Amino acid sequence: MKTNKIIIGLLAIGTLFTGCAEDFLESKSTEYATEEVINDFARQDAEAAMGPLMEGVYSKLFEYRDSHDDFGLRAIMMASDVMTDDIALATSNWFIYDNQNMNKTQNYRRTRSTWGYTYEAIRGCNQVIVGLSGIEEADLTDAAKDLLGQAYAVRGMLYFNLINFYQLPYETAKDKPGVPIYTHEEELQGREPVSKVYDLIINDLETGYAYLEGLGMDQTKMNEYAAAGILARVLAFKTDHPNQWDEVAKYAAIAGSVGMMSSEELAAFRFNSINNKEVLFGAPIDGQTTTFYASFMSHMDPWGPGYAGALGCYKMIADDLYAEMSDSDVRKAWFAAEDTYVNPENKEESRVISKYTQIKKFVDVGGFQSDYIYLRASEFVLLEAEARYLSGDQSSARTLLNKLLANRYTDEYQSSNSGQALLDEIYFQKRVECWGEGVRLFDIKRRNETMDRNGTENHHSSAMVIPTIKGFDEQYIFQIPLVELDANTEIGPGDQNP
């Protein structure tokens, strides 16, 4: 075997390796253990040690930090949604600065939190990768492959989020400064070009997928289907990738292959559990891991005791998007068709939930113990449909679209559209299907669409809401947080984003 580099990773968790190795040697009756035995033990011990490190990474993804709109990845997904034209806020409360596109400047919490938690999670992935890198490929067990696959794929996902919050999309910014890259070194790094960051992202996701392929799906951790889905997202941005849309379709098809809810299942599902056939990756939340009021359901569920319920901080579908939905679409029942009394038996003392408020898609199981869903298969059925269309295969695109619609409409509606009308319908259905799931902003950015609130009446929580932003507009870039500029000598004031 190679010179064992496992020790590097194990140093990150103290003296665990040393203590176990000494116990092992003391248990032998022979005077010396062979190098083969020692290396085999070191491998087993490394796997045992890296598992908790990877669990720490996942914990970081739903960690409460310093405010009630700051609870890891799901908070950032929610913030990105309210930056678009699909979600309107009923009141000026948490997430209002994201809604106004103001929460991106260097001294604001959103950019500080996004940068900080992401690089902390990346550091954990690096420790797992380095900690297992001394094992020859032929000697990797399925457990070690699983851990390596998770670490590479999660790292790729995290860098993908970073590069698309802190710079314009690849198509227009591939030669511009991106974000620092850390893979193992601790020395401070400056901003690398966007193209180099994408090279790392794609390599990480391809490597991660290769390790995870065939190991099945555990929704509580990164798995082959989730890795394939994220890779499809990434390749949709990388406009100069060879056979771009064929490759997007390939990986989106893998992610979307796990199955789709029927219309009845969709109507009953409250997006509060990862135990659903469409969920690819998420976080199980229970009484030990809940962040209570600082949680997704606190801000989304209008029936519960959180911000959406007790304070009426409702999250509403934009009225123009709602108006486009067919009455036969079962998803329309996700939203209040009219003002709704919480207690209709006693209207005088009842709270009113406003028309267009989300009322059924996201409902807490109780006690803020709803799981977080990060990725879902239906997104990738629609991404594959888009990719098939853009690769010139309209027939396959329509078939994929109708596969989804067959499980979303009660009147057996099927699309017969072609050309631009077909592509527009795919885009519209994705906006409806993925409402509130942290998907819309990145689609706006990569397609250079216009986020347009001019046609809506319920984007009225503040006069400061920006009516239109183009996807390639610098208004959609976060500034590097001031704490990073102060601490990192490799990034100067002149390296700041607009």
UniProtKB/TrEMBL annotation:
Q: Which family does it belong to?
A: Belongs to the SusD family.
Q: Which PROSITE patterns match?
A: PROKAR_LIPOPROTEIN
Q: Which residues belong to any copy of the SusD-like N-terminal domain?
A: 78-234
Per the record, the major location class is membrane
Q: One Pfam match, by short name?
A: SusD-like_3
Protein's name in the database: RagB/SusD family nutrient uptake outer membrane protein
SUPFAM superfamilies registered for this protein in UniProt: TPR-like
Localization recorded for this chain is: Cell outer membrane
Q: Which residues form the signal peptide?
A: 1-21
Q: Which residues belong to any copy of the RagB/SusD domain?
A: 292-491
InterPro entries referenced in this protein's UniProt entry, alphabetically: SusD-like_N, SusD_RagB_dom, TPR-like_helical_dom_sf
Q: Which UniProt keywords are listed?
A: Cell outer membrane, Membrane, Signal
* Gene3D superfamilies from the UniProt entry: 1.25.40.390
List the GO terms this entry assigns under cellular component, sorted alphabetically: cell outer membrane
**Does rRNA-binding appear among the keywords?**
no
